[in-house]
C-alpha cells in the first residue's frame, strides 16, 4: 500500500528525479507554460510552489536558496524579475495544471502546467 507516502518516484532514482524536477522548473520559469505528463506536472508542482514562495522576497539568502534548487543563474535572474511583482500579494496557488488528454504515441495522460 502507498498510503501516506510523500514523494512520487516516477520510476527514477533520487538523482535522476532531482535533475528532472530541476529541468522542469527551469523550463517553466523560461516559458511560463510547459506541456508534460500529468504525473510529472503533479510531482513538480509543490516544488515549484515552494520556490516561488521563496522568490517573492528578493534577498541574497532567497537568491542563494533558489540557485541551489535551479543550478541556472539565468533562470534564477528571470525568476526574481517577475516573481516579486507578479506573486507578491498572493498567498500560494502560483501554478495551474490543465489536463489535455492522452499522448498520441503511448497514451500517457498529458497536462499543461503554467504560472498563474
Describe the structure.
The structure is a single chain. With 116 residues, the protein is of the alpha+beta class. The protein has a single domain (14-115), classed as Alpha-Beta Complex (50s Ribosomal Protein L17, Chain: A), CATH 3.90.1030. It is built from four helices and three strands; from the N terminus they run αβαααββ. The protein has helices at 14-31, 38-55, 60-70, 73-87; strands at 33-37, 95-102, 109-115. A three-stranded antiparallel β-sheet has the order 1-3-2. The longest helix is centred in the first third of the chain and has 18 residues, at 14-31.
Instruction: Tell me the name of the CATH class.
Output: Alpha Beta
- By DSSP (H or I, 4+ residues per run), the number of helices equals 4
Distance between the termini: 34 Å
- Principal-axes geometry comes out as globular
With strands numbered from the N-terminus, the spatial order across the biggest sheet is 1-3-2
Q: Strand-and-helix sequence, N→C? A: HEHHHEE
* Class by SSE composition: alpha+beta
**Largest sheet properties:** 3 strands, antiparallel
Unreliable runs, pLDDT <50, ≥5 residues?
none
The percent range for helix content is 40-55%
- Looking at CATH, the homologous superfamily is Ribosomal protein L17
- CATH fold label: 50s Ribosomal Protein L17, Chain: A
Counted up, domains total: 1
* Number of beta strands: 3
Percentage beta strand: 15-25%
Key features of this structure:
alpha+beta, 4 helices, 53% helix, globular, single chain, 50s Ribosomal Protein L17, Chain: A, 116 residues, 3 strands, three-stranded antiparallel sheet
Amino acid at each position: 500500500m502507498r498510503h501516506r507516502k510523500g514523494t512520487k518516484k516516477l520510476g527514477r532514482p533520487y538523482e535522476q528525479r532531482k535533475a528532472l524536477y530541476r529541468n522542469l522548473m527551469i523550463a517553466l520559469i523560461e516559458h511560463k507554460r510547459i506541456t508534460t505528463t500529468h504525473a510529472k506536472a503533479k510531482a513538480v508542482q509543490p516544488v515549484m510552489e515552494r520556490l516561488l514562495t521563496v522568490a517573492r522576497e528578493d534577498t541574497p539568502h532567497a537568491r542563494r536558496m533558489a540557485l541551489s534548487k535551479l543550478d541556472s543563474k539565468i533562470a534564477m535572474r528571470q525568476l526574481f524579475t517577475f516573481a516579486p511583482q507578479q506573486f507578491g500579494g498572493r498567498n500560494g496557488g502560483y501554478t495551474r495544471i490543465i489536463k489535455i488528454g492522452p499522448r498520441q504515441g503511448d497514451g500517457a495522460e498529458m497536462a499543461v502546467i503554467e504560472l498563474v
